């Protein structure tokens, strides 16, 4: 059974909905798009690399990925823009690889790169404005409160 068939079976089992013949091509097309994005290819046992996942291109960024990202973002890039995007994404991935090499075992998780404390004031009870003075502005009042039209019947 191929990975595509396993995914379709899992979808059917999880949802209880059978994928009809007329929808099967669309479902397979979407699964293939995901496989392409991840760089997944069906391999036979003899060509499969144990413990390693094959990625498109040397660093994972190739022309197919750029085209796929264009399609997802609904953008149309010129050849120069595609080349620049490919270079930029390659730089980003290499920077992330550099960061992944850092030893962060003894580093405490933080939400900010600098010490941060909330500067809330203490909650103190203070006298409020005079009720009678405020109610002078009311068109109608009842029992010391503003009376307003009913909004819910």
Describe the structure.
The protein has 153 residues and is mainly alpha-helical. Among the domains are: 1-54, no CATH class; 57-99, Histone, subunit A (Orthogonal Bundle), CATH 1.10.20. It contains five helices and two strands, in the order αααααββ. It has a two-stranded antiparallel sheet. A hairpin with a 2-residue loop joins β1 and β2 (145-146). The longest helix has 22 residues, at 79-100. Mean pLDDT is 80; it is low at 44-58.
Overview in brief:
With 153 residues, the protein is mostly helical. Among the domains are: 1-54, no CATH class; 57-99, Histone, subunit A. The chain is built from five helices and two strands; from the N terminus they run αααααββ.
The amount of helix comes to 40-55%
Helix run count: 5
Counting helices, strands and paired strands, the structural category is: mainly alpha
Q: What fraction of residues sit in β-strands? A: under 5%
Whole-Å distance between the termini? 61 Å
Shape: extended
SSE order: HHHHHEE
Low-confidence segments: 44-58
Main sheet: which strands, in order across?
A: 1-2
Give the total of beta strands. 2
Taking Cα atoms only, what radius of gyration do you get, to the nearest Å?
A: 31 Å
| Oligomeric state | single chain
State the major sheet.
Answer: 2 strands, antiparallel
- Please state the average pLDDT score: 80
Name a few traits of the molecule.
single chain, 153 residues, Histone, subunit A, 2 strands, extended
Q: How are the elements arranged and paired?
A:
Elements: H1 3-15, H2 21-38, H3 63-73, H4 79-100, H5 131-135, E1 141-142, E2 145-146
Antiparallel strand pairs: 1-2
């Amino acid at each position: 059974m191929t990975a595509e068939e396993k995914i379709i079976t899992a979808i059917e089992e999880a949802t209880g909905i059978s994928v009809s013949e007329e929808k099967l091509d669309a479902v397979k097309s979407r699964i293939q798009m995901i496989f392409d994005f991840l760089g997944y290819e069906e391999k036979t046992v003899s060509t499969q690399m144990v413990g390693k996942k094959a990625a498109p291109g040397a660093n994972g960024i190739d022309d197919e990925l750029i085209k796929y990202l264009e399609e997802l973002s609904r953008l149309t890039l010129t050849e120069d823009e595609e080349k620049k995007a490919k270079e930029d994404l390659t730089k980003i991935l290499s920077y992330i690889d550099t960061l992944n090499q850092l030893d962060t075992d003894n580093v405490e998780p933080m939400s900010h790169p600098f010490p941060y404390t909330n500067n809330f004031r203490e909650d103190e009870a203070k006298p409020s404005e005079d009720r009678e003075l405020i109610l002078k502005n009311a068109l109608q009042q009842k029992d010391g409160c503003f009376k307003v039209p009913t909004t819910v019947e």
